[in-house]
Batch of 4 targets.
Target 1
Amino acid sequence: MSMILAIASREFRSLFLSPMAWTILAVLQFILAFLFLTQVEAFTSLQPKLASIEGAPGLTDIIVPPLFGNAGIILLLVTPLLTMRLICEERRNKTLSLLLSAPVSNIDIILGKYLGLLGLMLLIIALITLMPLSLLSGAELDFGKLFANILALLLLVTAFTAIGLFMSCVAGHPTVAAMGAFGMLLLLWILDWSAGMNDQRSELFEYLSILRHFQNIQSGLISSADLSYFVLFTATFITLSIRSLDNDRLQK
Amino acid sequence: MTALIEAEHLTRYYGKHCAVNDVSFALAKGEVLGFLGANGAGKTTTMQMLCGNLAPSAGQIKINGFDLLDQPKAAKLSLGYLPDTPPLYKELTVQEFLLYCARLHGIAKNSIPDSIKRAQERCGLTEVADRLIANLSKGFQQRIGIAQAILHNPEVIVLDEPTVGLDPIQIREIRALIRELGQDHGVILSTHRLTEVQESCSHVQIIDQGQLILNETVAGLNRQMDTGTLQVLTRLPSDINKLSAIPGVNSIESISANRIRIHHSVTANPAEHIAEQIIAAGWGLQELTPVKRSMEDIFISLTKEHREL
């Protein structure tokens, strides 16, 4: 366990030693703050109309789900850039042999790498959450819904990071890893679109779509089907990553 | 005494190409084993297998009594490895990097500062401890690689070409360090420089085309080296036929009209008879020198022999 933490903390700190993490944090914050303010603006212009409607959506409904939904889309673009270097670059710089000859198992290596990057992801989510929380100074929030959105985004990034890590294990070059991860994520994201077309609904595609499960949780409906989708998804790709690292020793 | 490393029948294929073929050897405490071979002979592959970076296609490796496959963690605890490219995180400082290595190798928290300090002193890194690895020269980076390998005071130290990229003074320091480490550890080092083996190793192994062709102590090899050949220079051309008749002379090659080289057997040294003969015949003896076979000669002749087989 202490080995996993050692690997994770190095990974996390290394991210901040390059401009990468800072740039991504800044860009994300800037774009999402802009979108957040747009939503607040929309709410203030809609407020008089909403007041006259019975059971109208509240402040949280109008501001939080779009903000977290957009964050999900932007993270879909950003996560592959963060995960691409995880294993791939270690292999290219030949630093992987340091880990392979140290008394740590492949499981420790993969989990350490995964948790290290997840640390950055948690930081990103925390920063995003601060935006709606800032409204508390002049309004009330529906904390249940806010929590559901945080949970949805958290599960989403655990799945994104797992796929990215796996692609980084498989690919020979970081760019290839990023492209592969991005392609897979985008495919899983838009799988649902074809399901909505005409009458050609496919149960399988609907189940596989990440977006569908994300939105279910986001709406406040936390069901075990959606939770287990994300858990299974993440576990599968972490297992595949471990397998792929095992494979490194067997063939070259 | 139990062996620190026992490698049995190691074989490694890359696809159909056989990089290492049925290599077996053992390393005991207090030995420095030099691993010699031409480029592509299978040195690095063998090292990688010993350190768990590469799984052998067949064979077994035991480190300090632990099987590398069945108990990898226990086996790797007593292992320090410097690969052919030092595995350094260039964005860290020397101190941070060694701290990370110490944690990876499971050194107890309260003894980490001491072990880092000792490794830095041994490798001459104390004055660059707070500098970024990326900004240091190749020689320093190589030394950080060595520091990383000896940091946790492992029983077995495996160094893949440790003196590459170092200047002559550093090479001398590193060789002294290796000899010092060899006193209470087992050290394997691979190299293609033969003088290095002569200077710092107690045992030598030559690998060629994936096969082990020599496993000898350096003392034994030195014995092999000072036998065999005499170089003779005379004022007048000498009669080769007469000299060939002297007992103990195996063959004679003439280099120029006055200079010949006499190959003789190890047991009967005919130098005295040759000198008498030349003086008696009045050819004018000017020079009679035993030719030492250098390690290069042995290496080249052995690999040649092996390839002709």
Target 2
Amino acid sequence: MKWKVTLALSLACAALVFVLYKGFGQDPHEVPFMLRGQPAPTFTLKTLGTGEVVSLAELRGTPVVLNFWATWCAPCRMEHPTLDWAFRQYGNQVKFLGAVFEDTEENARAYIARAGSPYPQLIDPRSQMAVDYGVAGVPETYFIDAEGIIRDKVAFPMDRATFAARIRVLLGPRASAELGK
Amino acid sequence: MNALLISLFLSASALTGAYAPQQAGSSPLEPALEARVQKLGKELRCPTCQGMSIADSPASVARAQLDKIRGLISDGKTDDEVRAYFVARYGEWILLSPKASGINWLVWLGPALLLIVGFTVIFRQIKRFPLAKSASPASAADEPVERELQPSASTATEDDYLKLVRSELKR
């Protein structure tokens, strides 16, 4: 009888330790990345300035880098030069897209006029496309492969090394060899 | 000092434009549907001001998520489908109350289980050492001492040690 009580208490303790381990073992502020390996939510949005329509479905066959940003976000402004550099490095193999998050078109247009952007910036009305992607804040960058599958997400301002590492994974071994030349 | 620092930070933020411009949410749906929107909004965690629901949060991302709920409900989605949409994108993290399934049962049943274990331990202890039993031997044991401490002709004359104790107590 006594061993049963001991066993039950041990199990209860083990369960408690497990729950505490799960609870303390993760950052409660970190929003999980659920869309890894999932098809990227489709969108058809207008670009800032030109009003040209961009559809993700039409980009099938080309890897896409989709960056959510805002003018009021200091880390986004800090990341901007890295994305410009990345476009110059990999722009011939990857389609770069920016998406304005929770900002006005006027603010975004003024910022792009000042800082410049070599790739299209999308206007996402009411940030509904951002919610489709599970965006929790900016900057967030999604790496989508040629088949339209989300391969990775970076939820902090990237430096060149971080970006290069992600793009190598996105493009695979053959492209990595080309990039290494 | 803190108030000054906060004021300076807020002033700097206002001057540099480091804030999300306030945007109006989508129009409320008809009352019955809007009630569902608000109820679902109360169940979902705001990603920026955590610990608050998106229905209560003033954050712009929460407003965007509430707009998404309106859109989904307008499209005829059920409450479970709306919840599933958000869980698919943000994980169960987005739910302010975890689902009562799988390992989550530990969270729901744990407190009740601990109470039961606690009461069981107390009950067993009481059963093993009842108050009546523990009290009576003590009082019974005290009686002879009391009696012995009372001066009586037989003990006072026979026991020098008791005499000594009594004289010490009288000081």
Target 3
Amino acid sequence: MLELLNVDKSFGALHVTRDVSLSVSAGQCHALIGPNGAGKTTLIHQISGVLTPDSGAILLDGQDLLPLSLHQRTHAGLSRTFQITSVLPSFSVLENVAIAVQAKSGTSMRFFAPAADEVAINDRAMDILDQVGLADRAGTLAADMSHGELRLAELALALAGEPKFLLLDEPMAGLGHQESARLIEFLGTLRGHIPMLLIEHDMDAIFQLSDTVSVLVDGAVIATGTPEEIRQDPVARAAYLGETAA
Amino acid sequence: MERAVLLGLAIFAMLLVAPPLLDVAGAGYLTGLLIKAMLLAIAAISLDLLIGHGGMVSLGHAAFVAVGAYAGAIALDAGIEEILVLLAITIAVTAAVALVTGALALRTTGVYFLMITLAFGQMIFFTLSSLASYGGDDGLTLWSMATVFDSDIVQNGRGLYFVILAVMFGVWWGVYRISQSRFGRVLRAARDNPQRAAIMGFNVKTYQLVAYVIAAVIAGVAGLLSMQHAEFVSPALAAWQRSGDLIVVVVLGGLGSRNGAILGAFFVVLAEETLSHILHEWRLIYGPLLVLMVLFAKGGLNDLFIRQSAKA
């Protein structure tokens, strides 16, 4: 279970995260919505360790994440995707995932045996590519892949870390309708197995995937509830759905 | 077998038969030139581990050649003549210096990493220049030479030639193996996208520091061999221009390529030798030549050779 307690952060005069508290329990998918610039990605950055909050606490299964660096948070069970695709461009897709699997399977301070010959790691990486539907692209250089494929590859990287918790920053960003639908379907299969915090704009996706929704505006959580409650909530509608409160 | 491997093995085969052939041709003096190129190649291969595979552009790598040479020279001056003991001393000293300077330098990246490695290189240069009892600025001429198990096989020109060739082969093979290992893979991942590598769960700086130390130790061994070959060490070995030359060799040969550092080293040494016979101001030709090479052969000499042989 992931808990954020009174997380607060400013960049100079810009107050990007205002006293945010939320919790995602085991098996839940928690969606984070809000207008552009509301501080959604900034919040994910603080959970994953890319940025450090000024105050507050972030706990994963009771373990304080804040003293941990990026790689230590991964070992603590956290995994994430980026809004702007972040893979290893000069490696094949298979090797991208294989490196992430390698991180989970013993020391990487091995200097002589060729890593590409490790069957167990390659098999596991192929399994994951198969899950996200990229198996037939395994040998392609990441730099040569389409945007849609890279979104899937990024998800494969996150899954390779066998996370206890998944942070997804707009996984559907820039995808066509069909690709989106496929990805939503796949995320649906993860739902209930891996708890997730999901940033997403597409309300359809949110209704299909999430158990709980929080609305973030100007860095503060202004409403939390089930997707249906949020749809009915006048404050959330005013702030996010662009309607004037009745 | 891969084309690149064949090219590499062909180079080593040529170097293996070169000395007797050059003797027959009455050009035995050229073996000295080959030794010079091989020593440069060993240091360049180690720098390519940093730049090509690790993305860490160091402008102070020659300083480790100097540290290795001085560690050997000072120990030899103190009466230690067994080269295997000198080798152990050289490795220990360069590793220690690299561990400290690398840990500090790796707090930065990019152009700041370049600046800080340059600064450490200069510090080492001036430290060596200030060693008054070891010749100061002028350097130190060695009056004895290292032996191996009391044999002088590593002393005569021919024996040392093959020792250096063997070391170059070991370094060429070893660095390639490292680059393909789990460790090398993490190092290349960190070059591509350090943040992603960290989020995969790797402590990126630790891997980079280990690579930095490995590269420094190899450069130090090149320094020890150059001490044995020249019977002389001087602070000029640590000059930042030498570090710049090493970068030129690596880029010219082809970053992170199988044989690039070796091809680059031989190209640079042979170009200097031939051009300086043609023209006193040979750098007037050498400069534009480098510009053309970098502009039109982006994959470096390694790529050029392999593509040519693919056409044939």
Target 4
Amino acid sequence: MKKLFLVGMMILGLSIGPVVHAQGVYPDVPKATGEPHPEGNEFMRINHPDLLRHDRDLTVRDGDRDVDYSLAGCVACHAVNGPDAKPVTSESSEYFCRVCHDYAAVKIDCFQCHNSLPPDLGEASLMFDRPEQSLDVLLTYLEGLSR
Amino acid sequence: MERIIYRELKSTPKVWGLLALLGVFIAAAGAVVLYVEHYGHIVTGMNNQIVWGLPHVFAIFLIVAASGALNVASIGSVFGKVAYKPMARLSALLAIALLVGGLAVLVLDLGRPDRLIVTMTNFNFTSIFTWNILLYTGFMVIVAIYIYTQMARGLPSYAVKTAGLAAFLWRLILTTGTGSIFGWLVARQAYDAAIMAPLFIVLSFAIGMASFLLVVMGITRMTGRAFGPELRTRLARLLAIFIAALLYFTTVQHLTNIYAAEHWGVETFILRDGGIYTFLFWGVQVLIGGLVPMGILFHPTLGKQARMVVLSSLLVIAGGFAQLYVIVIGGQAFPLEIFPGYDVSSSFSDGVVNAYTPSMLELILGLGGVALALAITIIGMKFLRILPNSLSDANVAPKT
Amino acid sequence: MNIPGLKPAGSCGGGCASKEKGADVHRRDFLKSGAALATLTLAPGVTLMAMGNGVAAKANPGVRWGLLIDAGKCPSDCNACVTACSDEHGWENNGLDTDPQWIRKVTLKDRETGRENSLPVMCQHCENPPCVDVCPTGASFKREDGIVLVDRHTCIGCRYCMMACPFKARSFLHEKVTDQKVTTPRGKGTVEGCNMCVHKLDRGDGTTACVEACNATGNNAMIFGDMNDPDSDISKALASYPSIELRADLKLNLGVRYQNI
């Protein structure tokens, strides 16, 4: 009798998740600007921590800036505007990352060090210089070959 | 010969009262940790010149005392002295407790204590800190096994001796590792000396024995269990010898430094011109922490009195604390010698003696670690059969 | 090379069983194939790195970035390098002992002669960095091209590297940081120091903020370049004029050299 009761409670407890999800308590994730991820949102939702961690090791340890997923890239597209039509920082609970992370109660510490505002495209930011550089590199290589 | 019966502590109001008091200190330290973690280390007295402060002195003191507290058990199990064997369980428990207290203070003072998992999964084996992490956790496991061998029935007769030997050797390596934290730094004038490791080992003997004496005398007094005067005198004599050894190593350390012109700067700083550090060195470390308790404990009549033993132990602890304060903080106060022969000045405190005022928060954190160590000891004695019913002199063979 | 006691591979002094054991044969083959595989894998990367002209895909292990500072050209009242660094990376030193300082101007006065000199001191980017040796998590590390950095993702803020650094190059962040530069993330509870403007180097600027500023003032006291390239300005200057390392007796083989101290 006791066992039946315990099993029943367990089933009840485990069903809270899907029930809640079905009822729409899931957070209201703000829409991003820019092109959608080719891998799909579900892939990103599940894998973004590993992608970020892998790329950060490449960038910091190896100096490889040619990475697929950079934090500044995420922030640029996923900026959420506050009431003053300016992007909010990670201090605000409206912030893109915070919406899901507050719901899931998983604290992130990226923005203790990284600036949570989208990078000013006017500044010499790393990611946005790349297309020209590849051309430079290619030309230099071809030049070197012809010597 | 009296049969040793180990018994748990009874839940008397005194025990609960003590635990409650310790709980207050632990809770206060917990609050400090949350506060510092939220606002950053700006609220402490530490800065970019004195990067390790009072919490580190407390932590290193507790860790070094932990390895020394195991001494009594080692003398019983490894060196076969029968009189010490009844105290072995308490000695081992105290060792674990002090280590946990020290580690708690150390870890909670990190800039990112939330990254403890990173520490446990990313090891850099050229760093003595990494080795220390393994040594400290290994120490707790080995000493726990050691206590188990002493308490379990049906184990072969060599089990206790083997575990005791393993624990003894491990603790020597551990204390070498702790001393090497400073001994292996080339940067600072006060460090970079091979003698740091053996100095710390002898320091552990002294403060470990003093801590053990205080705990065993305190707990037997509180619970009304016997603690024989002859046994106490034996421990006290040992403590006196350890103090003498510590004074010897300290003398060698400073004499060697004084001989080299390169180190005159830091030596005159510590021995003469250092203000608080000079006072702590001569007044507390050498005089009241070294010569006075040694004199008392070697004295034929004074050394046998309980009150004098307690006093001497307290003085030794104060002396050990002062020694670590001079090493850890004095060593940072003295400026780096980047440009020998020049007077240096800059906007980053080059060339000047660095000032440090410990904040109340750091003191509370440190005391919380001490309280945690004592609380673990008492709780351990409460739930496990650690403390013998009587530590009277019945099992101490009279000296011929 | 004739090492006594060591038999040359493949040959054997007369009279010994010259047949290799099965395990040895397999091990050799495995090693050979492994070496071949590694070469094949690495070759494209090496070629890629070789063709980058300062705009490398990764940190180039053939390069060793270094600085040469001429203290004779450094006026005592100039702080251009310090200001440039703090502007570039977003740190501020307002005189508090808890404020960070990545690069500082140091004034020297000879005790015997009274002669004064001034020069900037920053992380010396040692070849054998004590800070890298002592970091428990490996957060303090040396990149392939010689730059010594703190991986702030892994830094636990233990400050052992600050104890170990002979030049007091590192600072600990004592309070919350806001408004970080995108190219220099920095946060409370971690340790930081001069990173030789890695972000500038990696995008091809070829120099650091402090050197740029020093050149802009006209003093030209600092040269930046690749110490492994014999044709670079810095290598030529190091080869022609005497220079020293700070605390040279520690034998750390520094990436920052000084002249005319």
